[in-house]
Write a structure and sequence with these properties.
The chain has 13 helices and two strands, in the order ααααααααααββααα. The chain has helices at 9-23, 36-55, 57-61, 70-95, 101-109, 127-147, 153-181, 185-204, 216-221, 229-246, 272-282, 286-299, 301-320; strands at 257-259, 264-266. It is mainly α. It is globular. It is 67% helix and 2% strand. It has a two-stranded antiparallel sheet with strand order 1-2. The longest helix is centred in the middle third of the chain and has 29 residues, at 153-181. Bound molecules: benzoyl coenzyme A (BYC). The site of benzoyl coenzyme A has 28 residues, from helix 2, helix 6 and helix 9.
Length: 321
């Protein structure tokens, strides 16, 4: 984590005015004054979110050619295409903070920037496509519905649109799961096995527990985050347990029990050692994912060169006219 920037005496009045605007529920826009640390935190979080969307295309893209029907293939293609759109949309939002997209991509490829841990797990069966839509997009909705109220205007507005599409993704995933749950014993077994593999990694998507989350305090203070990692994780669990029961699927946690006093589903211990391994670059598919992104980047070099040459020509034509 970067160290907080020192605020000089001259800046303290600006910071106070900035924080008063946030406290009043105002939206911070690109041309507004903001503390350098706020800008850097947003660039970190938004760019990692954009990277997650782009890397998140890979595990599902892997199943497009193997979707079991034309209808399933069409909706999976549409979902993966939406994810590309979300990534580009959030990269554009990040650029409003004055950072160059090439720099962001370089940070992803050389390992300086993270992307969501969940995409470092392999997709081994068709049921994974259902479970990813149900759990992963479900978790994303819980997280992003709150981010739609974030203090930075371009990010909050991006989340409003993205959440609408995530809802479609979640429904298509849950529908795949419900269909498999009503299918043959082999289909039910395939579904349960996918649920068993994805449940715990999906809970890890919300980040480390609050006591271990170095960025939370600052992000909450500036209302980028409006709820803590643990609050959102609990909300996701509370929503998902009844959905699992509705289709007769068991969540792989013997400690899951409803607490009628708190109205929460209590759950077992998350394997944080596994989480830190995965975000440290040592998950099951980290190297494969980055290699795929590096290859796409290298294969796209000619497009970037052509676009740069075309922009240069247009500039010269305008100057000559
Ligand atoms: N995976 O202080 P903390 C999607 C890192 S895309 C990897 O709590 P923060 C979808 C964290 O970055 C889903 N790294 O951090 C796409 C930090 O490291 P650095 C992506 C994680 O920022 C396609 C360190 O751990 N969603 O839904 O306060 C198909 C300490 O954590 C993770 C977003 O990105 C993780 N799970 O809170 C389907 C949403 N968790 O940067 C679906 C926007 C933590 O200091 N982001 N880390 O080196 C957020 O809401 C927050 O950034 C997080 C983390 C809750 C993820």
């Amino acid at each position: 984590m970067e160290q907080p920037t020192t605020v000089t005496a001259d800046e303290s009045a600006l910071v106070a005015a900035f924080e008063a605007r946030i406290a009043a529920g105002e939206s911070i826009e690109p041309k507004d004054w903001m503390p350098e640390r706020y800008r850097r935190q947003l660039i970190r979080m938004m760019s990692q979110h954009a990277h997650s969307e782009i890397v998140g295309m890979l595990p599902e893209g892997n199943w497009i050619t193997r979707a079991p029907s034309l209808r399933r293939k069409m909706s999976l293609i549409a979902k993966v295409q939406d994810e590309a759109g979300h990534g580009l949309y959030i990269y554009c939002g990040t650029e409003t903070l004055g950072v160059d997209r090439h720099e962001l991509v370089a940070q992803l490829l050389d390992g300086r920037a993270k992307y969501s841990s969940i995409f470092n797990y392999p997709t081994l069966s068709w049921a994974d496509m259902g479970v990813i839509g149900w759990f992963v997009d479900g978790a994303a909705i819980v997280n992003q519905t709150i981010l739609a109220k974030a203090s930075y205007g371009p990010y909050a507005r991006a989340m409003v649109r993205i959440c609408k599409e995530e809802n479609f993704h979640k429904r298509q995933g849950y529908e795949i799961c419900a269909t498999l749950a009503n299918g043959t014993p082999a289909q039910r077994e395939m579904l349960q096995e996918a649920v068993n593999r994805f449940w715990w990694p999906s809970l890890m998507m919300f980040g480390p527990s609050d006591t271990d989350s170095p960025n939370s305090a600052e992000l909450l203070k500036w209302r980028v985050k409006r709820k803590t990692n643990d609050e959102l994780r609990q909300r996701f669990i509370n929503l998902t347990v009844p959905q699992a029961a509705a289709i007769g699927v068991t969540l792989p946690d013997p400690d899951l029990r409803f607490n009628a006093e708190t109205n929460n589903w209590e759950f077992g211990e998350i394997d944080w050692a596994e989480f830190f391994q995965v975000i440290g670059g040592n998950g099951p598919c980290n190297k494969e994912r980055i290699a795929a992104r590096q290859k796409a980047h290298d294969d796209g070099a000619w497009v970037r060169e052509a676009a740069t040459a075309h922009a240069g020509k247009q500039r010269r034509d305008v100057q000559a006219a």
